[in-house]
Every structure is written in structure tokens, then in C-alpha cells.
Amino acid sequence: MADLTFELGCEELPASAVERAADELCGHIKAALDESRIGYGDSQVLCTPRRLIVSITKIDDVQPDENVRQRGPSTKAAFDEAGEPTRALQGFCKGQGIDPADVETEGDYVWVSKVITGKPAIEVLASVLPESIGKVTFDKTMRWGSSRLRFARPIRWILASLDCSPVEFELEGVKAGLESRGHRFNSPEPFKACCLAELVQELRSREVEPDAAVRRDLIIKEANEVSGGKAILTDALIDENVHLTERPKALLGEFPEEYLVLPEPVLITAMAKHEKFFPVRGADGKLDNKFVSIWNGGEEAVVRRGNQWVLGARFNDAKFFYDEDLQVSMDDFLAKTEAMTFQESLGNVRKRSDRLAALTKIIAAQAGLKLENEAAYAGLYAKSDLSSGLVSELASLQGVIGGEYARREGATEASCQAIAQQYSLNTAPESTGDKLGVCLLCADQIDKLAGYLGLGLSPTGSSDPFGLRRASGLLLDAVGSFNCAPEGWSNAFDQALQLYADQGIEIDADKARELASDIFQQRVKASNTDKRHDIVEAALEGSDLAVRMDPKLMDFRLSVMDLLATNEPLLQAASRPLNIVDSAREKGEAFDQSLKDGAWDATEGNDLHWAAEEAYVGMQTALTDRSPEEFVVALQTLQAPIDKFFDAVMVMAEDSTVRCARIGLLSWVSRIILTPGDLRKIVIEG
Amino acid sequence: MEEGEPDFRNTRFERGKYNPARSMITFHELISRLNNYWAEQGCSILQPYDTEVGAGTMHPATVLGSLGPEEWNVAYAQPSRRPADGRYTRNPMRSQRYYQYQVILKPSPDDVVDLYMGSLNAIGFDVKKDDIRLVEDDWESPSLGASGVGWEVWLNGTEISQFTFFQQMGGIECKPVCAELTYGPERLVLMLNQQNSFWEGLMWDENTTYKQVDYQQEMQNCVFNFEVADTEMLLKMFEMYEAESQRVIETPVRWDHEIGILTAAPLEGEKSEEKAPMPEALVYPALDLALKCSHIFNLLDARGVISVTERAAYINRIRARVRACCKAHLGQTGQKKKKKKAG
């Protein structure tokens, strides 16, 4: 048994891909060994941005022999009349490398049994390793030079050692061998390594820490050390630094205090997002004019000076615009949005602001927030920061900057928070500001959907150039955090359409409703792929925009259908009135819905009538409480009266008055049954 | 650079006429160091293209040079125009017209990263003293129908280059793949000198400032781009250049072998058997016209007169023109190869 040490050396891989690629590579190699019937012991994976290392211990030296039985030509074709081998058989035997005397006859064919001698593991690996490299998947792959292989970045060296013997293969001009390389700049010379322990030791002496977990610990430890434990160490940023470095060290840098006047999100974005630096927070909870940079090479003083230079340049840039913005009021920013097109047929952003003010107010009221003025302010000034200098430079901070500037003018805290949070959905809003932020987000999406869909610009296939699917998804996620009357959201949508009309902007409201209904239906289907198709269909049947825009109501309908799917007798009973009403409608029968007891000339009719009255009350309560179990319990009370009615009564009576009254009764019962969708779509299994 | 600190940077890599006694590197010196370095690596040093382009990538030496099987190693500085980036000189490091230094290596050599690192040493950095990173950055130019995979190069946290392996140009797969290295020379000079603005202290050469060369041009063009340019007229010009680019690329031309010139004049009489199997085309003039479309689009975009819905359509129209040029160009080079083989 021997140990495999395998290192794939690349130009810097994308930080987000490193870890997964290494794991995949290991998985592919093990799967290929399994398929080759070669046993092995433990495996270990290490990785840096420049190398994926896989080690597998105790690999069998030789693949076990394999017995194979191969069918040859038919007996008739294999031997001539004299019983001598024909050309066909000779050809077959030649191909198999055996003598015609060694074939067996079984049934109508000749057969050959052979033992295929197992190959040495090192030979198997010579094809397994390059094949496994080719199987690793990435979000994006590339070719380089004249290569045909696709990989995340160019492959530059391959170390493949089976207990010090090189596994010999070549991939895109790179010969596998026993050599690795150290740190790109500090130790680029090739060196030899035979086993994992040696490779790891040599790498460490060449300023490469191959173990991502060790690099992670190092980053945390050093960042805490240099900052006195004050660095803001977020997981995502740590991970990014882990896979951007082979030899992480932390240094503490400084920037001029004058930049601390910049809003905190501006400072943090420049440091963490743009530079991958960790911001540092003082004991007073405010940001320090310091940062922690994780560096991979060079001389600390030079790197620090460079880091400080670039951060200073970024802050200087931001400060320039911030100072300019200080001279401008929210009203001036708002006025400037008149020059910004929202959509050529939907007018400018200034007009949109008026719509958002009205719509946010409506939605806030609907959500039970008594914040009329705050809502109107947040809506009106939501998009003002788009004309500010700072947002023109740091587009990712739209909203956040607006919130800061509104606060500067003394706007209420709820309004400021709402403006700041309008682009990032808070699914568990706590403060009134959080809640108003969700209202504003909803208003934003509804206005957008109403406008674009009113122009007929709905997404097609994979193309959604205006992000309307995203808008609808965001809206459904947001809506989930509110308790609101069933009609609320479609009312809001209608109001949004009306606001366009009030501004004299021509859109097709009916078209908008129709397309919105389609989009939300798609969202319902897309977010319920784990549910049975027929159940989703049943719950969607007969649903309108109001239902589809209300995820809680939709969930209620889905749960009811789920419960009904396991209750076959009820399903069958409940389907009977629905079916007969449909067929009566097709035949053009008249419906008498006055529901006068006795009109149907059968006591079973009276019983059904009163049972349905009672069930209706229970079902409505269950609907309000969003309790699918109670709903089914109420529906269940109808099963016996329905069955009794159908057993005793001939619906299509000769007397047309009686017939109309019976159909009218059943039609009324049907409407109650159809409340959560059409249960007839449910497929009974078995 | 902190005051009183000795400047060690410029003493290490003397080249050409640069006087190492001076403490600052000039813009001119940086370009000439890059020219010298890449010439030493076997690149032909070209000159900037003479129509407005948004990036060095749009120079025909890259658009057309990145296609086809031939080796192609060139480098050049290219003034680049991005009207939307104009800030009336008030952003110290952003302009609507600035310079790019561009290297194309086809096919991308195995040691392309090392070659690039060598260029950093050549211009005055020391890759062993600075912290240099290759950070994932995939590049795409929808209007060129081009895309690539590569990195932003960070030097102590500052992005100093785009490093891209072209996968597609004009919607056509690049075979082989070329490496495109793009430097921002102004920023490199500022970093080497520890300066902070294009407009303060950045020297073009020992006698002239960058400001003297480019300030008026920058300021006036910002006014033109954002305030004065006639957008109605630009919209018409876009249509005209687009139509002309299409007409030109579709105009039949042929080699007149007797005189030895390319001509659009139809053949006299019935000598049509001379028709080449792969048609010649006026690729360069048609590409120039497509580049005009691209620049006009950028101007209109900077003015905010192009809405979200129209934007994609305009970009598609530019791409269609560029793609037609790329396809015709490949057809021609294919023909030349065939001829060589036949001869």
C-alpha cells in the first residue's frame, strides 16, 4: 500500500472557488479509485489560492484481477461444416488475444473467459488524476494559451507522488512530477516533495500555509493582536482573506482623523468591501481612524504605506463629494431627480417620488403603522440621494446615504431608517423604522411592477432585463412579515396603477393586473417546487392577484390541499356538487339561488343547506385564523349531508322549478368548497 | 511618502535617459519604461489609435489582433474616453479622458504572470517589497461581444492593472487565447511618487506637467459632454455611422491583381472567375465607424438620455457592427493562409 500526495498548482484561483474545488477534486479521485476497485485509506484536502492539495493514504498497490466473459460470433458462424474455426471466429480470437481452441460454446454462441490482470495503482492513477482535474466544476471556466482544457485559471505545475514515485502524466503541456513551488514572490524556486508531511513542511518553510483552517486562525489571532481586539472581524471577510493569501499576516494602518466625519457605512464600505480591510471600533462604539490589513507578502512598512495611500485616496474622494453634498438640502436633491429618467414612458424619478409618497402611506396604514407623515416623507425622499455626489461615486450605498442626509436635516428616525433600509429587506423588522423600511420597499416594488407591466414589459423566458421577477420575489418575502387584510396587496397594486393614471402617465391597467397575476403565479410555483405539482395546481386554481400576492394566504390554501390529499372520502364527496354544477352550467341550466327551504322538494336538501350554513361560518373563521386544520374539520361536516343528498335526490328533476332550486343550492355549496382552490385537481394516488 | 524619508524607489531601475538623481518619475518615463520592457519581451510597440475609444481594448490591434491563430505580441498607450467618468477635474484621480497602457500576448505564454510581474519591477516597484495580489475579476464588454477571465492586480490594495485571458471577441471564440494586460499609467506614476492627484505635481516630463497637457482638454470636454453636446444630433449621428458601417462592411471589394490594389470597382467584362473564395471586406473602415457609434453611445449615456430599456438595444446594435467586422476579418486572414499554402 502506498500514499498519494497530489498538488495542482495554478495561477491565483478565485477566492470563492478554492475550497470547493479542492473538495471536489478529492471526491472525483476517490470515486475513480472506487470504480477501478482500488482500495484506499484516509484522505485529506488542503488548499491555497495557488494550489489544491489532495492526499490519500494506503492505496492498494495493484488493481485486483478481473474475470470477464465475452460473447463471440454465433456457433453457426464460428465453425464451418467440418467443425473448423471460420474466419469470423479467427478474427474474434485474434482481437481477444486467445487461441480458437480456448473458446467455449454455450447456447447459440461461442464465449471466451479471460482474466484481466489488474494494473498497478500508479498506472491507474496516471489516467485517474488528469480525468479528475477535468471534472472539477466552477461557476466560470476559461481556456489559456492553446489549451483545450477548461479550468478556473491556468494550471502551472502538478506534483503527483505515490510513495515518492512520480505518477507520470501530462496535462496541457504540464508534466506531473515531484516538484512544488513556494510563495509566488518570496520563494518561487521549485523544490521536491515526496509525501504530504514533507510537502507541508517545505511549504511552511517557504512562506506558504497550505491549511485554510490554520490561515483562518492566524488571521483572527493576528488581527486581534495588532488591533488590541478591536477589529470588526466578520466571517465573510475573514473567509475572503483566507483564500486571498498563502501567508497571511496582519498589520494595523491609520487614516487621517478628518475622514471620520464621513458616514460610517461609507467608511466601512471603502475598507471592508473595496479593500478587504477590517475596520476597527473604539471603546466608545465609534469607528477608529484605523484598519487591519491582511497582507500576503512584501515589507510591512511598504505595504502599510501603500494601504494607507489607497484608503486615503478613496476617503478623499468620498469626502470631496460628502462636503459638496453638505451644501445641498434634501429638497434640492429631490428637485434634481427631475432630470433622471425612471423609464422613458413612465416619466422621471421626481414624479416617481410623489407616487412613492402616496403608496408608502397607503401600505403603512394597511400594515397598521400610525406613521402617516413619516411614511409620506420616506416615500417622497426615498430616491433623492440618487442625485447626490456620494451615491454617484458609491452606488452600492444608495438609500444608506439618503438616510444619513435625511437625519442631518432632522427628519424623524423612522423615516431615516426606512430610507436607509429600502434596498435591503429586513424579514424580521423590529423597530418602527424597520417596519416602515419594509413598507417603503414594498411601495418601491409595487410601483415598479405596476409601471413596467402596464407597459407590457414582462419578463420572457430567461430574460428579465428590468428585474421584475426579482421585484415580485422581494415583495412576496416582504409581505410575509405583515399581517394584512386579504385584499390589501392587490388594493395597493390597484392604487399604484391609479397613481400613474393621476399623473397622466398612460399605462394599461388591465394588462398590468393580468401580467402581475402571471408573475406572482410563477413565483408561487417557483417557491413551492418541494410540493406536489397537483397540490400547487389545486391551490392556485381560482386564485386572483390578491391571493397570489399574499404568501400567507397561499400557504393556507396549500396546506388545506395537502390535508385533503390524504382524505379520499371527503375529496370524493366534495367533488360531487362541483362536477354537477359544472355540467349544469355547460347545459345552460338556470340557477335559482334564493335558497328557500323546501324549494328543492327534499328534506336532504334542507339538511345540506343548514349544514353548509354552519360549515361556512367555521371555514371563514379558519380562513381568518389561517388554520388549515380547522378549515378541513369544517369542510368535513359537509361530507355526510352531501352524500345523503346525492343518494336520495335526483338533481336533474323533471320539474324545472325544483331543478333550478337544486342546482342553485349545489352551486352555493360549491362556492364554499372552492374557497381554498379546486380540490378536484388533487390526484388520488394508488 | 512621508517627509524626510529617502526615496528608494527610483534608484533601482534606471532605464533610458531617466535621471535617477531626480526623486520623481514622470508620466513620460513610465510609458517609456513600459515600452522598453515589453519591447525587450518581443512586443512590437504600436501607437495609439486615432479615433475615440472607450478603452485600449477597442484599438483594432486588440479587437482584430486577438482573433485568429497567428502569434501577435504588441503593446501601446491608448488615450481612452469615458464621458460618464468626467468630473470637471474635481475628482483628483478620475477623468473622462485618460490613458491606458495595453499589452496583447497571443497566445498567452505560460509565464505570462511572471512577465507581468517583471514589468512592475521595470517601472519601479519591487514585487518583493510590495504586496501584490491577483484578485478574481471577470471582464466583459457587451458592445464588443467580448469576454474574458482574469484578475484585477492589486498592489498594496490599489488596483493597478486588469489582467485578462480573452475567451471571446466579437462573439467569436478566441483560439488560441490571448492575454491582455492593461495598466493605468497616471495612477502608477502617482503611486510611485506617493502623490494624490492628476492635477497637482504629476509631471508629464521634466519640463511639462500633466495638467499643462490635459487640464483644459479635460475641463472643456466635461462641459461639452454634459452640457453642450447636441444630443438630437448625436442620436442622428449614431444612426448614420451605424448604417454606414453596415454598408461599408457589406460593400464588395476585390483584389485587382494586375495593379496590385484592393478596389471596390466592379470587374470589367466577364472575368468573374477571378472572384476569390473568401470575400475581401473593408474591415478597418467599418470598424472605425462602429467605434464612432460606441463613442456616441457613451456620450448619450453620460447625458442620461438613454433609458434602461433603450440601453440594451443600443449596445446590441454596436455589437452587431463589431461582430460583422470580426467575422469578415477572420474570413480574410483565413484566405491569406490558404493562399500561402497554395503558393
Record the SSE blueprint:
The complex is a heterodimer of chains A (686) and B (343).
Chain A: E1 2-10, H1 18-35, E2 43-48, E3 51-59, E4 66-74, H2 75-78, H3 87-96, E5 104-106, E6 109-116, H4 121-135, E7 155-162, E8 165-166, E9 170-171, E10 174-177, E11 179-181, E12 190-192, H5 196-205, H6 212-227, H7 235-242, E13 249-254, H8 264-275, E14 278-281, E15 287-295, H9 300-326, H10 330-336, E16 341-343, E17 347-348, H11 349-366, H12 372-381, H13 389-393, H14 400-408, H15 413-421, H16 432-454, H17 468-479, H18 488-502, H19 509-526, H20 533-540, H21 545-548, H22 551-564, H23 568-587, H24 603-625, H25 628-636, H26 639-648, H27 656-673
Parallel strand pairs in A: 7-10
Antiparallel strand pairs in A: 1-3, 1-7, 2-3, 4-6, 5-6, 7-8, 9-10, 11-12, 13-15, 14-15, 16-17
Chain B: H1 27-40, E1 44-45, H2 60-63, E2 72-81, E3 97-106, H3 112-123, E4 132-136, E5 139-141, E6 146-155, E7 158-169, E8 172-173, E9 179-183, H4 185-193, H5 210-228, H6 231-250, E10 254-256, E11 261-263, H7 283-302, H8 308-342
Parallel strand pairs in B: 1-2
Antiparallel strand pairs in B: 2-3, 3-9, 4-6, 5-6, 6-7, 7-8, 7-9, 10-11
Helix pairs in contact in B: 1-3, 6-7, 6-8, 7-8
Summarize the structure.
The complex is a heterodimer of chains A (686) and B (343). Chain A has 686 residues and is α+β, with helices and mostly antiparallel strands. Helices cover 51% and strands 13% of the residues of chain A.
